[in-house]
Specification:
By secondary structure, the protein is mostly helical. It has 2 helices and no strands.
Amino acid sequence: MSIESWAALIVSICTIVAFAAGSIKWMVKHYLEELKPNSGSSMKDQITRLEQTSKIAEEDRKELHRKIDKMFDVLLDHISKTTK
């Protein structure tokens, strides 16, 4: 192989490596921006909203179970009074 061929091969390899590194850098920067809050449209904001919604739903579920337990107790009390 001549010197020109080696030079062309080295330049080609350097170009491919530089392009790959630039692509990876752009992708990392793009995805990291999704993890920063930005008033509602980032993934971080959406996950925060989902967590808050799930906490509220969990509290509502617990309150519903308390109400059902109370209604069950009232029903059992009523049945015990009417059967005596």
